[in-house]
Automatic annotation (TrEMBL):
<dbReference type="Pfam" id="PF12836">
    <property type="entry name" value="HHH_3"/>
</dbReference>
<dbReference type="Pfam" id="PF10531">
    <property type="entry name" value="SLBB"/>
</dbReference>
<feature type="transmembrane region" description="Helical">
    <location>
        <begin position="20"/>
        <end position="38"/>
    </location>
</feature>
<keyword id="KW-1133">Transmembrane helix</keyword>
<feature type="domain" description="Soluble ligand binding">
    <location>
        <begin position="68"/>
        <end position="101"/>
    </location>
</feature>
<keyword id="KW-0472">Membrane</keyword>
<dbReference type="InterPro" id="IPR019554">
    <property type="entry name" value="Soluble_ligand-bd"/>
</dbReference>
<dbReference type="GO" id="GO:0015628">
    <property type="term" value="P:protein secretion by the type II secretion system"/>
</dbReference>
<keyword id="KW-0812">Transmembrane</keyword>
<dbReference type="InterPro" id="IPR051675">
    <property type="entry name" value="Endo/Exo/Phosphatase_dom_1"/>
</dbReference>
<dbReference type="GO" id="GO:0015627">
    <property type="term" value="C:type II protein secretion system complex"/>
</dbReference>
<protein>
    <submittedName>
        <fullName>Late competence protein comEA</fullName>
    </submittedName>
</protein>
């Protein structure tokens, strides 16, 4: 019986302020709906984030296997980073050997080309070029490559030459020769200057006698 007055007052309060309460509840619903609308409209980030790895990044990872043979220092099968170039494969193999036909390589070998998995690169030697040209002409051992053979043999490979071989270059003493060895490998002969191994003046003296392949 003691709860009856309280229940009476509560019912009376609801009856008296029922419209106010309804307006308050309606206002809360509208505020909640407005917040959801604004969140969708202005792109408020969700706390759940899904990170997707792009196909391009997947393709850029991993290794490829390529073979190089013929007139190179260390022919064989090598593993390289995906996206490597023929130039990278040549450097890994130690560069062209002494009997490589560099004239042919300059004309027909695209060292900037990207390698594909399983690709094989073959470097032609001077003797192969000479034999091929002789067979086509039916005799005579003179070919374009053989005309350059004496010049080609002058080249010293700065990626594989010994200190004594480098020392034989004009203006290159034991100190410079050792520095050249310590800063290997080189992608191009100009790297000797850009890496600070030798001066531009000294490079001009030896540039026609050196190679990186």
């Amino acid at each position: 019986m003691e709860d009856l007055p309280q229940k009476f007052y509560f019912d009376e309060f609801l009856q008296k302020y029922r419209y106010h309460i309804l307006l308050i509840l309606l206002g809360l619903v509208l505020i909640g709906g407005g917040f959801i609308f604004l969140k969708k409209s202005f792109g408020v980030p969700s706390t759940k984030v899904e990170i997707l790895q792009s196909a391009q990044s997947i393709e850029g990872d991993g290794e490829i296997t390529a073979e190089i043979s013929g007139a190179v220092i260390n022919p064989g099968v090598y593993k390289l980073k995906n996206g490597s170039r023929i130039d990278d494969l040549l450097i890994t193999a130690g560069g062209f050997s002494e009997d490589a036909d560099r004239v042919w390589a300059e004309k027909y070998l695209n060292r900037a080309a990207k390698l594909t998995d399983g690709q094989k690169v073959y470097a032609i030697s001077l003797s192969e070029q000479s034999e091929s040209s002789s067979a086509k002409s039916g005799g005579g051992y003179q070919t374009i490559s053989s005309n350059f053979s004496s010049d080609s043999n002058k080249f010293i490979n700065i990626n594989s030459a010994s200190v004594s071989e480098l020392d034989s270059l004009s203006g290159i003493g034991p100190v410079y020769a050792q520095k050249i060895v310590e800063h290997r490998p080189y992608s191009k002969t100009e790297d000797l200057v850009t890496s600070g191994v030798i001066t531009q003046t000294l490079y001009e003296k030896i540039k026609n006698s050196i190679t990186t392949y």
